[in-house]
Amino acid sequence: MFAIIQSGGRQVKVTPGEIVTVDRVHVEQGQEVTVEQVLLVGTDGGEVLVGAPFVTGARVIGTIAGESRGPKIRVFKKKRRKGMRRTKGHRATYTRIQVKDILV
């Protein structure tokens, strides 16, 4: 069984027992989290449930396994012959979720 969920504006494919990385969720480590924005569910029998936009009654249950940080992104801007140089950086924080179950 698998599901495609929407989290942080992105779509993520999840299966039970898998650890997935999503944008930061403000929940403490070890707490249980429920995602109700399920776009698609595929069962073991080959049946596929597609939502418009979400599958009604479908949920993905998991626990927070921790947080991690993505790579540092450097943004450098320069205007030639003007002496203008600017450097900015960004590093996103992600949350790891251990998927327990997919309920339809």
Q: What is the strand content?
A: over 45%
The computed structural class is mainly beta
- The side-by-side strand order for the widest beta sheet comes to 2-1-5-6
Q: What coarse outline follows from CA principal-axis ratios?
A: elongated
Overall tally of structural domains: 1
What oligomeric arrangement do these chains adopt?
single chain
Q: What share of residues is helical?
A: under 10%
- Mean pLDDT level: 95
Q: What profile does the largest beta sheet have?
A: 4 strands, antiparallel
Question: Topology as H/E string?
Answer: EEEEEEEEEE
Radius of gyration: 19 Å
* pLDDT < 50 runs, ≥5 residues: none
N/C terminus separation: 11 Å
Task: Tell me the number of helical segments per DSSP (H or I, 4 or more residues long).
Answer: 0
- Let me know the number of strands: 10
Report a brief summary of the structure.
With 104 residues, this protein is mainly beta.
Helix-strand layout with pairing:
Layout: E1 2-7, E2 10-14, E3 19-23, E4 32-35, E5 38-42, E6 48-50, E7 59-69, E8 73-79, E9 84-90, E10 93-103
Antiparallel strand pairs: 1-2, 1-5, 3-10, 4-7, 5-6, 7-10, 8-9
